[in-house]
Amino acid sequence: MLQSGKWREGLSGDLLNMAAERLKRQVLHRQSIVSLKGYIGLGPVPAKTGHMTCVLYGCSVPVHIRKVGDHRVIVGECYIHGLTEARAINLLQKGEVKEDEFALY
Question: Are 75 and 44 in contact (CB under 8 A)?
């Protein structure tokens, strides 16, 4: 299907509609984001410059966090291309990112 460039040939109308609806749900309330280090991805609409993208231990996806007083608040989950928990640990070991401890509400 994909090799011929005719991906729609293998999809029935119902399946195509289901796929389109699922895609719409995944990107609804998302915006393109670019990190200071050049990573690109999708983040929550409330994400703003100055917020942090964090990979939290045990969390399955990166999250966008903002500072409020002496603690942090999760703005929402995000997708950052190429950034997984394993990749973040690798970057931490190389000293390219830092580990921090903070209160999260």
Answer: yes
CA distance 88 to 78: 14
What's the order of all strands across the beta sheet hosting 40-44?
Answer: 30-34, 40-44, 79-80
pTM comes to 0.64
Cβ-based neighbour number of residue 64 at 10 Å? 22
Q: What is the pLDDT along the chain (105 residues), one digit of tens a residue?
A: 445 555 556 666 777 788 777 777 777 778 888 888 888 888 888 888 888 888 888 888 889 899 898 889 988 888 888 887 788 888 889 998 889 888 887
Q: What CA–CA distance (Å, rounded) separates 89 from 60?
A: 14
Three-state SS for 16-36 is HHHHHHHHHHHHCCEEEEECC
